Amino acid sequence: MDRITAAEVFVEIVDRGSMAAAGQALEMSPAMVTRYLREMETWAGARLLHRTTRRLSLTPPGEQVLARCRAMLEVSAAMAVLGTDEADPVQGMLRVACAPSLAQSALARALPEFLRRHPRAAVDLRVDSRAVNLVEERIDLAIRITNDLDPNLIARRLTDCASVICASPAYLAEHDTPATPRDLSTHNCLTYSYFGHSLWEFVDIRGEHMEVPVSGRLSANEAQALLCAAEHGAGIALQPRYAARELIAAGRLVALLPGYEPKSLGIHAVFQSNRQMRPVLRALVDFLVEWFARPQ
Fold it and tell me: Is residue 179 classed as helix, strand or coil in its secondary structure?
């Protein structure tokens, strides 16, 4: 049997925590996964995994073999690149995950340019409000707006994401306009289910930080829905500036609380490892760093 494939199967079993998950990731039957694992154990001359009904764990020889398999696959990937078109080794499919608002405002504009540069590359864009599991869902790259990064993943900062407090003219005509962040406690605030929905953070012009508890009758797990609700008078929203910019310029939303800046977040490219990083993934990350650095 192919020992490179056997090494890939063994690494997938360890990374995904089960033989079934490895089989799904590799689109391989359970019987074939078992055969490749046995081949690897025969080749190593040792049992590589402790198997129980609940979990798998590495034996001491398994830990050594895992490190050598990773190195083998890295060399294999590097050799494969030598056989590609030297003018553009960037090729293959990438699965990219992103939140809806950022996908619409940024990636939908950036990715066509990347694909024009690299005609042999392809992207499958998965748009989802939740933070997907890169390993379980076979995602190569996730673009996330957060300051709370998973320490088990590699992240490269693309840019800052400034936010704005905003409401529609109709809402403000019926309610007092807040003068300070603390006034938000008396307003119907539209809260985001996945991000600190009851506590909004600000920095004033003196650099002082404050945290303000907010509440309201409408919350959602998708920022674009809250933006639309704010436009229709449902309450006060905390939104990325890039998402609210056009509505504010058109007068359909009003930016509030001048002198108080909502806490800025980072926009990050998140992936599993720098090792065995395919040229197409490295090229896309480098391109996004360049693209987000341009004036938007």
Answer: coil
Which of 272, 274, 289, 291 is closest to 116 using CA atoms? 291
CA distance 184 to 178: 6
CA 142 to chain centre: 3
Q: List beta partners, residue 144.
A: 268
Structural contact between residues 189 and 214, judged by C-beta atoms closer than 8 angstroms:
yes
pTM above 0.90, yes or no: no
Mean pLDDT taken over the chain: 87
| Beta bridge pairs of residue 201 | 211
Is the pLDDT reported for residue 37 higher than 80? yes
CB under 8 Å to 99, separation ≥6 — which residues?
Answer: 127, 128, 129, 143, 144, 145, 223
Which of 58-72, 86-100, 269-283 reaches the highest mean pLDDT?
Answer: 58-72
**Cβ-contact 243, 223 below 8 angstroms:** yes
Q: Is the pLDDT assigned to residue 212 strictly greater than 90?
A: yes
In the chain, the amino acid numbered 76 is: S
What angle, 0 to 180 degrees and rounded to 10, lies between the N-to-C axes of helices 30-44 and 3-16?
110
Q: Which of 71, 269, 59, 259 is nearest to 165 (CA)?
A: 259
CA 160, distance to chain mean position in Å, is 15
